Amino acid sequence: MEASGILIKGGKVVNEDCSVISDIYIKNGKIVEVGRDLQIPAGVRVIDATDKLVIPGGIDTHTHMELEFMGTTTVDDFHIGTKAALAGGTTMILDFVIPQKGKSLLEAYHCLRRTADPKVCCDYSVHVAVTWWSDEIKKEMEILAKEKGVNSFKMFMAYKGMFMLQDSELYAAFSQCKEIGAIAQVHAENGDLIAEGAKKMLSMGIRGPEGHELCRPEEVEAEATQRAITIAHAVNCPLYVVHVMSKSAAKVVSDARRQGHVVFGEPIAAGLGTDGTHYWHKEWAHAAGFVMGPPLRPDPSTPGYLMDLLANDDLSVTGTDNCTFSVCQKALGKDDFTKIPNGVNGVEDRMSVIWEKGVQSGKMDENRFVAVTSSNAAKIFNFYPQKGRIAKNSDADVVIWDPKLTRKISAKTHHQAVDYNIFEGMECHGVPVITISRGKVVYEEGRLNVSPGHGRFIHRTPFSEFVYKRIKQREQVGKPTAVIRKPYEGKVISV
Ligand code: URP
Ligand code: ZN
Ligand code: ZN
Ligand code: ZN
């Protein structure tokens, strides 16, 4: 925290609903005042933001720092990963607790907190994955929602034998989410079809990264997305589809929203910024670098389509699924694509990629940019306007953004631990020139100045109004009732 405060002068303050030239006074980790010509005590650091935008720090809804997965551990840990986030203008991440099948959610939650709390450089919170079902899990979900600051639970429809739930288990988990005021999240891919598809590809001698996409084409994602929406609707539970990667799955989400379903779709930086043609690259390491689930799609019109839907509120919010494995870790699958650890980078580059492909391209304005990079996440996961807004009393997570500056993305200059970058060479307009986290300037002139443990865990309460207002009302008015009849008094056959 900056001892005597910070005054950001003359910038254009951009929120999700409007932009206005204004000063901001920050003290003790909070935004104390927003307005013109603020009278500020001596000793305050003044930052001139003329011709720059002043935006809420980015919120990445989907990361996996130091996750043990597919036989290895992601290289971006909570320290390096959150530092890289700050360098890219992201001041909060939502990571995942993913317990092994049969293990306690609460123990896994405490384990992650013990690891992350002393390391994080920006604020963070967690979604918890439900990887198996029992009465104990049901109880633990309630404790997590009531006492541990968790209001979102991810269910996997893929990763057969590892994390995948059956439809009846999804029904039970979604019902419990509704009961405790949480948001059900799904990894929507048909795990049975993927398992069969993988066997088929291997039997045909297709062992390289292209097999990863070929065994799970986009209808495998679209089918699961539709199924999850149907199950969620059956129990009147809000649904959040993580990493929407294909045009057909995005269309399913969009159609459901237009039918009035309470469903949110999360495209990720990778899906908005690049595509699955890389799986056919001749160099194995290059192709393997893009392997993630669901896969990037070879249809090159996919990123533009996803951006169109994001711009128009058919999709709601953006994450990255940052889950980084270096090339030598990816090489666990050098002879068999099913063994390539799934995951790509994004946490550092999400803001610039979305600015370039969304705002610079003319698809969305600066306000929609703020909505999809921070405000909507804060609303859905119930910490708005603490974050996701530049306003009096909000957390001082602020980015001074230069929309005219450009930078070229490269593994040579990024701050992440991973040794390649899926956006290598991409020229982006939109550069964070200063990042302020919890009232402290943590990134400036290309340099990071932050220590592990600077960030805090953000406790989230259940029943987010943004999500639950409609759900609660429907619960009241939508109950089916029995028809009152006289008893049937005719003959009944004997059996
Ligand atoms: O490839 C991915 N997405 N890795 C992380 C695990 C997940 O499904 O989110
Ligand atoms: Zn997933
Ligand atoms: Zn390529
Ligand atoms: Zn993920």
Automatic annotation (TrEMBL):
An annotated Gene Ontology molecular function: dihydropyrimidinase activity
Post-translational modification: Carbamylation allows a single lysine to coordinate two divalent metal cations.
InterPro entries: Amidohydro-rel, Hydantoinase/dihydroPyrase, Metal-dep_hydrolase_composite, Metal_Hydrolase, Metallo-dep_Hydrolases_sf
Residue span, Amidohydrolase-related domain: 53-442
Cellular component GO terms held in the UniProt record: cytosol
Transmembrane segments: none
N6-carboxylysine: residues carrying this PTM: 154
Origin superkingdom: Eukaryota
Pfam families: Amidohydro_1 (PF01979)
GO biological process: pyrimidine nucleobase catabolic process
Annotated NCBIfam families: D-hydantoinase
Family: Belongs to the metallo-dependent hydrolases superfamily. Hydantoinase/dihydropyrimidinase family.
Name of the protein in question: Dihydropyrimidinase
Organism: Mastacembelus armatus (zig-zag eel)
Organism phylogeny: Eukaryota, Metazoa, Chordata, Craniata, Vertebrata
